[in-house]
Design a protein that fits this description.
Elements: E1 2-13, E2 16-28, E3 33-37, H1 44-51, E4 59-64, H2 69-74, E5 79-82, H3 94-107, H4 115-128, H5 144-156, E6 162-166, H6 174-191, E7 194-198, H7 202-208, E8 211-215, E9 222-227, H8 242-253
Parallel strand pairs: 3-7, 3-8, 5-6, 6-7
Antiparallel strand pairs: 1-2, 1-4, 8-9
Length: about 260
């Protein structure tokens, strides 16, 4: 579903050029869950923004399905994104925040379908995320974890094939983070979406993923692609298994020089 070949990205900063990404190459299979891990500043978020078509690369090729990132942006069924912060509009209710992409895309006549049906889908998504009682609440009335659930619903509202997630749980406490990990897995298992997930947590990456792309320090490049051979469906108890701890330890081994 996603193919990256020799991606390079640089930034001009004052009197020097910073190489953020260099020779990044890997694939993400259709309906798989792949995480990207690496030290701060290695270009994980930059790579996700490039895949989303929000920033250009210097060189290399990115394909999403059979489309370039620019083409994928215009094909709204292809791509959804969840950012580090929920970025909800405070003057809109929860359900109206979820509906925002639909309203924008319909106004631009780039999303087919019936508005009422999308409204029903928004309510179904919120119910699935345990927010049945909060459809008409406002963001200020929700906890951080609940706001991020709304953000995930918003990314799913027009049923994209690919979801890009940039450290969506990084600002949450450990208990809320683990609960949302389980809920995200349930959504993924039911929907067969392709998910590319950026995280700083090696434990989270191993628990969620089919494969973990391990990035080097800047300039970011692929050091290893770790296959996670834990059975699915994957209950929370798998975190207690010897194989889970073995895989986490292997992921940590790539960063011993940073510890």
């Amino acid at each position: 579903m996603i193919a990256l070949r020799d991606i390079k990205k640089t930034y001009d900063q004052r009197d020097q050029r910073i190489v953020a990404l260099r020779d990044v190459t890997f694939d993400v299979d259709t309906a798989s869950f792949v995480s990207i891990v690496g030290p701060s500043g290695c270009g994980k978020s930059t790579l996700l923004l490039a895949i989303a078509g929000l920033i250009p690369t210097d060189s290399g090729v990115i394909r999403i399905g059979n489309a370039s990132p620019t083409e994928a942006k215009s094909k709204n069924e292809l791509l959804g994104m969840v950012f580090q912060r929920p970025v909800l509009l405070p003057w809109r209710s929860v359900v109206d925040n979820v509906m925002l992409p639909v309203e924008i895309l319909m106004e631009n006549r780039s999303l087919p379908g019936n508005y009422t049906r999308y409204r029903e889908r928004a309510q179904e998504l919120l119910d699935m995320m345990g927010l049945s009682e909060f459809h008409h609440s406002y963001p200020r009335e929700l906890s951080g974890g609940m706001q991020q659930r709304v953000s995930i619903c918003r990314s799913l509202i027009y049923d994209p094939a690919v979801i890009l997630m940039d450290e969506p749980f990084g600002a949450l406490d450990a208990f809320t983070r683990q609960r949302l990990n389980r809920e995200l897995l349930e959504i993924w298992e039911k929907s067969s979406k392709t998910i590319l997930f950026v995280t700083h947590s090696l434990e989270e990456a191993v628990y969620l993923s089919d494969r973990v792309v391990v990035m080097s320090a800047r300039p970011g490049t692929v050091r290893e692609i770790l296959d996670v051979d834990l059975a699915r469906p994957r209950p929370a108890e798998v975190r207690n298994s010897p194989r889970y701890h073995e895989l986490v330890a292997r992921a940590y081994s790539y960063f011993q020089d940073l510890l």
